[in-house]
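WARN retry 2 of 3 for item q-0093 after timeout on previous attempt; input resubmitted unchanged.
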Amino acid sequence: MQEKLTIARPYAQAAFEVAQADGAVGDWDQALSFLALVVNDADMRRVITDPAVSKGRLLELISAVAGESLLPKVRNFVRVLLDAGRLQLAPEIATAFAAHRAALDNVAQVQVLTAFPLDAATETRIANAMQTRLGKAVRISQTIDSSLIGGAKVKVGDMVFDASLQGGLSQLANVFNIK
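OK item q-0093 returned
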């Protein structure tokens, strides 16, 4: 995953610079998020990796699926990705682009991993706590990870706040040198 993100960063940076120059950061963010959904679709992934399907045909297919929402410069960007054999990196590019947008908007992306879905009140408490800690607005995304047993892990960039039952048990095991 990290290798993909490393390769995706320059593409995201270039897309962000074009979007910012055009004053269309939101439109690009939406388009790249949509492209990531398309690329993550299992049926579409089979088409993308099929050597019998030409790059031109793939571009036509993506354009048809996106419809009028695909800006001409985004279409050109998709063509660049196809020519470079990097279309599969669309999800990582969308993630890196969203990080650039969040920095521009002074918003922190906060990922909450929980064993069970959070109710609205708990999500609000986490958002308020993170806003206070970070000094900026936060955007929360939630991921369910049943291996956590209970509690939550909160990730902001490279920082991880582990308040999960699994994390607590791991710390306890370390105290007693249990492996």
